[in-house]
Task: structure prediction
Amino acid sequence: DAKTTQPTSMDCAEGRAANLPCNHSTISGNEYVYWYRQIHSQGPQYIIHGLKNNETNEMASLIITEDRKSSTLILPHATLRDTAVYYCIVRVVGGTSYGKLTFGQGTILTVHP
Amino acid sequence: GAGVSQSPSNKVTEKGKDVELRCDPISGHTALYWYRQRLGQGLEFLIYFQGNSAPDKSGLPSDRFSAERTGESVSTLTIQRTQQEDSAVYLCAGNRVWNEQFFGPGTRLTVL
Result:
């Protein structure tokens, strides 16, 4: 699976949009971009994933660049409860790669009042 | 239950003792994963089960670690002769293959 690079930490004001970047310059054509987050003392939680089109769900939006070498997770109206470590993960879906997730260090997002 | 459950939530043991950690996945989740998370670190993959296929044990750090799963139900992770470096949160996750993984709350293991 391709390696990802994320900033170590970011701050965001409550109510504002949080934009978390991820670089995955070595991504291959059959690899998806997944985002998970981990709130303190809890297990990771799935947020969203995509292949090449932008995606949106009730939690967030995922913007993937046209060359697929980077992406941005957008939390449109951050709340204090969104303070967490956010992991960007790139992985193959299908074939012989069954779905093991390879977690990097992630981005510590702190939402402040 | 509605989610993945793990027990115990906390375990303190003495160096050299054996411990057994339990994971109850969501019904219908055929794939089950164990991960380890040391303090301040990301998750490390340990082992994967999928139905009746042979498990992928490639992430187990030593032969002191083993795991079992019967069918598509409960899984247990056993650590024999625990060492202080085994102290971590052990997380279990499950999914229907290729779908997002649902994680349990973890078991915090402290080896004194």
